Amino acid sequence: MNIEKNFDNFVRDLERLIRIPSYLQEDNSGYPFGEPIQKSLEEMIEICKELGFKTYIDPAGYYGYGEVGQGEKLLGVLGHLDVVPPGDLEKWDNPPFEPKIIDGKLYGRGTQDDKGPMLAAIYGIKNLLDDNFQLNYRIRFIFGTDEENLWRCIPKYIEKEEIPSMGFSPDSKFPLIYAEKGLLQCKLRVKNTSGLVFKGGDAFNSVPSKMVGKKSESLINTLKELNYDFVEVGENVEVIGKSVHAQVAETGINAINRYMEALEKSGVHTTSGQFIVENIVGHDFAQPIFGDIKDEHSGELKFNIGKIEFTPEEEILGIDMRIPVTYKTEDIVEKLKNAIEKYGFTYEQYDYLRPIYTPLDSPLVKTLMSAYSEVTGDKESQPVASGGATYARAIDNCVAFGAILPGKPKTEHQPNEFIFLDDIATAMEIYMDAFIKFNEEN
C-alpha cells in the first residue's frame, strides 16, 4: 500500500495539532473546556476539509466529525483531541507543545494520545481515496474534546447525531482491546485538623510525578531514611515520582503517596496520611481495602491517588480505579466505603464509565485482527483486555484498535511523549487494510 506520498503531509498536520496545548483550562472563552481545546477541534476540522471530507462542528464546542464515503452503513472511528497537562516542564527534553523529530521519533504532548493515532486513521483513508478506492459505506471520524476528564463531550454526540453500527477507537494498542475495565473516579473528603494547606497532582488518571510541600528538618530526614528522591526548593521540598497512566499505576512512582507517608512518619499526622500508609503504601492494588480483586479477562483492580488538596476546612483525595470487567461496581464502592468509615471520610463519586466486553468471535474483532495480522505478519498476538478507558465504550459493537505496536513503549501521560514515525506508518497501513476489508464485507 502506498503511504509515502502523503506521509510528509501527515507529519505536517500532526505538528499543527501538537502545537495547540489542548488540555482542560478554565478561561472566559465561552467554550466548554477552554479556548485551546476549541482551537484544536477547529484545526482538526480544517485538516479534514483540506483532505476533502464532509465536516461538522458542534456549535457549542463539544465535538466535531469528518466523514467520507456513501451508503447506509456507518463505521465510526472515535478519538479525542484533548490531552493531559504537560506536568513538570523540567522533565521534558523538548517543550511539550513544540513538536520535534529526533532519531525517527516525533516528540510532543498528544503524539501518542490521541492526536497521532487519530490522524493516522484519517490519512489511511485519504491514501486509499487518492488511489481511486471506491467506498461503499461511510466512515465518520468523531472527535471528542473531554476524554481525559469527564467525557462530557461524547454524550452530546450520542444525543444529537447518528450512531455508527460499529466502530473502533485508535486510542490504545495493537492488536486489539476486546474488553475494558470499568472506570470509577471519586473524591474522599474529611475534616482537616492539621492546619496544613497544599495541593498536588494534575489529573485523576495520571500517577503524580511530583508533590511539593513545606520542608522541615524532620521531613527531610524521613525522606532520606525512606530512600525517596526529593529536591529542596527554597522553603519547600519536592518529592519526585514517576508519572504513568492510571491504568498501569503500579508501574509508576506516586509522589503524593511518598510525600504523605514521609509526612506521617516524620510526626505530622493527617487523616489522609494515615489512610495512605495503612492501605496503599506497599500494596500495588490497595489489597487492604479490596482484597485480591482480579479476573482472567482483565486482571487486577487498579487504584491511583491522582490528586490531593488540603484546604483550611478539609482534606480531599482524588482517586481513580479500574475495575475488572466481571465485578460489580457497587460491590467495589461498598468495600471502599467500609474501609474509609473508620477514618471519617465521606465518599463522593466524580465520574464513572461502564466496562465493555466484545466477544472474540464477533465479525468486528475478526475483521480488525485480520487486517493487523496481514500487515504486520504477526500471527501470534491475541486480543487483550485493558484498564484504559477509550471511546470504544461510547457505542455498542466498538473496540480499541491501535496504534501502539506490541513491545513498543507507551509514553502517554508521561514527559517526552513520542511516537516512532515508522510505527505510526505501519498503523496507518493497518487502518487502510481494515477499511478495505469493511468494504468487501458490505
From TrEMBL:
PANTHER family: ACETYLORNITHINE DEACETYLASE, N-ACETYL-L-CITRULLINE DEACETYLASE. It holds the Pfam family Peptidase_M20. NCBIfam families: dipeptidaselike. Gene3D superfamilies: 3.30.70.360, Zn peptidases. Coiled coil: none annotated. The keyword Ribosomal protein does not apply. GO terms for molecular function: acetylornithine deacetylase activity; dipeptidase activity; metallopeptidase activity; zinc ion binding. This is Dipeptidase, putative. It comes from the Bacteria. Its cofactor is Zn(2+). Belongs to the peptidase M20A family. GO terms for biological process: L-arginine biosynthetic process; proteolysis. The keyword Protease applies. Keywords: Dipeptidase, Hydrolase, Metal-binding, Metalloprotease, Protease, Zinc.
